[in-house]
Amino acid sequence: MVADEEAVDQKKYLEESCKPKCVKPLLEYQACVKRIQDDDSGHKHCTGQYFDYWHCVDKCVGPKLFAKLK
Amino acid sequence: MVGGGVIQQILRRKLHSQSVVTPVRSWLSSKKAHEEAGSSGVRALALLGAGVTGLLSFSTVASADEAEHGLECPDYPWPHEGILSSYDHASIRRGHQVYQQVCASCHSMSLISYRDLVGVAYTEEEAKAMAAEIEVVDGPNDEGEMFTRPGKLSDRLPQPYANESAARFANGGAYPPDLSLITKARHNGQNYVFALLTGYRDPPAGISIREGLHYNPYFPGGAIAMPKMLNDEAVEYEDGVPATEAQMGKDVVSFLSWAAEPEMEERKLMGFKWIFLLSLALLQAAYYRRLRWSVLKSRKLVLDVVN
């Protein structure tokens, strides 16, 4: 019997599939990354845009995840 | 952060409808107010303007605290959430296995005894066997000495460290909290713990975490001492369920929820029963009250004016 060893993590899979829904905050984040690339002061960061993106992904993944788990 | 934005929107709409506020304020500063009937209205507008400025600046300051509060965790549809829903006991059993193999090396659960697991996640024999695997200090014996013996059902779950100082010393100054009540001890505990355990990600651009800490957006401040502990296949479940990170997270949080609220099922049953019975009693009491008061409420008062 060949057991299925490659159980894909359901949360990662859903986060990937929710990316298209959250393109706008993702682009905002990438724009921020580009903006602060040349900054050397160490004070600039993209936490806001990062949070907005992951909040969007979380809201998408949340209702769906447990249906995929035992 | 969201509340600040809402307040800003409401105030902006208010400002648009009173579009004279800003010019009025500057007019006020450049001219003295009249002493006529219109001055109180103007002063009220000035006060409103000051209040608006204060509120606006407050809301922008508050939104800079995002990382400090941690990313808001989503709401997951826990199977034991509903008004008459019980725990998923298979999940509790798996969750205990995850705790034992992954978490117990650093986190104590000193309020749970082996006997608490009987009938919830394990049979009595299984729990006895599990307890017997640990060594417990007991005593003093007849000779006045402390001795060690194998564990019994009545013993608490073993503690990884002798005391908090030892725990901090072994973990770079950070204390791995006791998990017996953790889902009640954190705001939105169940969702928070699940989001935290499965939410280890690369930090955003511009954020660097010092050596020894790890980035987790859900942790207030973003820098947590605990590394990512749930990795796929870290545990092999007895019942053959694939142990992905999300599965282990769900199971361990089910176990922790049970540990913090073992009375939940009985509480829900009792609540449902008594709310139902008390509603009936309310109807009965209302009827009886109206019945007894009907005598007075159906009185007729006749005003007989003789003049």
Automatic annotation (TrEMBL), chain A:
Membrane topology: Peripheral membrane protein
GO biological process, any: mitochondrial electron transport, ubiquinol to cytochrome c
InterPro entries: Cyt_b-c1_6, Ubol_cytC_Rdtase_hinge_dom, Ubol_cytC_Rdtase_hinge_dom_sf
One of the record's GO cellular component terms: mitochondrial inner membrane
One Pfam family matching this protein: UCR_hinge
Domain Ubiquinol-cytochrome C reductase hinge per the UniProt entry, residue ranges: 9-70
Subunit description: Component of the ubiquinol-cytochrome c oxidoreductase (cytochrome b-c1 complex, complex III, CIII), a multisubunit enzyme composed of 10 subunits. The complex is composed of 3 respiratory subunits cytochrome b (MT-CYB), cytochrome c1 (CYC1-1 or CYC1-2) and Rieske protein (UCR1-1 or UCR1-2), 2 core protein subunits MPPalpha1 (or MPPalpha2) and MPPB, and 5 low-molecular weight protein subunits QCR7-1 (or QCR7-2), UCRQ-1 (or UCRQ-2), QCR9, UCRY and probably QCR6-1 (or QCR6-2).
Family stated for the protein in its record: Belongs to the UQCRH/QCR6 family.
Protein name: Cytochrome b-c1 complex subunit 6
UniProtKB/TrEMBL annotation, chain B:
Membrane topology label: Single-pass membrane protein
Name this protein carries in UniProt: Cytochrome c domain-containing protein
Annotated organism of origin: Thlaspi arvense
Coiled coil: none
Biological process (GO), any one: mitochondrial electron transport, ubiquinol to cytochrome c
Gene3D superfamilies the UniProt entry points to: Cytochrome c-like domain, Cytochrome c1, transmembrane anchor, C-terminal
SUPFAM superfamilies: Cytochrome c, Cytochrome c1 subunit of cytochrome bc1 complex (Ubiquinol-cytochrome c reductase), transmembrane anchor
Lineage, broadest ranks: Eukaryota, Viridiplantae, Streptophyta, Embryophyta, Tracheophyta
Free-text remark on how the cofactor is bound: Binds 1 heme c group covalently per subunit.
